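quick one
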Amino acid sequence: MEQSLIILKPDAVQRGLIGAILSRLEMRGLKFCGLKMIQIDESLARRHYAAHEGKPFFPGLLQYITASPVVVVAVQGKDVIQTIRHTVGATKPIDAAPGTIRGDFGLEVGRNLIHASDSPESGQHEVSLFFQPHELLLWERSADPWIYE
Ligand code: IDP
Ligand code: MG
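structure w/ magnesium ion:
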C-alpha cells in the first residue's frame, strides 16, 4: 500500500480551484485519508523541498509555497504514486497533456498548482512531515470493491 502527499499550492487556493482539483482526484477513485488547510512556514518548506536546495529556482519556490494557505491531502492505496503523478501531469504546464490538472489549469512551472510525491519512499516521508499519526484515518470505504478488483 503506497502513500502520497498532495499539496494544493497557494495559486490553486487563491484561484478558487480547491474543489475542481480535489474532485478530479476523488472521481479517479483515490481515497483521501488526511486533509487540512495550513500555511506552510519557511522551516517546513525547506524540509519538504530539501532536494531542491541550491537550485536557481529554490528561493522563488520557498516564497511561492509559503505565500498563502495551501490544502494538504494524504492519499493511500495501490499504485497511488504513479496514478497521481499521471493525473497531475508534467512539472512544466506547457509540457503537461490536456486532461491533466497542470495541463488544464496551469501555464508556468512556477505556478503549477499542485505537488504530488514522486516515489513510495518520498510519499511516506512527506505524509509524515505534514500529518501527525492521529490525523490519518484508515477508514473502510464501501465503494472500494467497485473501484479495485
Ligand atoms: P514536481 O513538482 O513535478 O515533482 P520538481 O522537479 O520536484 O517537480 O520541482 C518542484 C517544484 O519546484 C515544481 O513543482 C515547481 O513548483 C518548482 N520548479 C521546478 N522547476 C522550476 C523552474 O525551473 N522554475 C521555477 N520553479 C520550478
Ligand atoms: Mg518533485
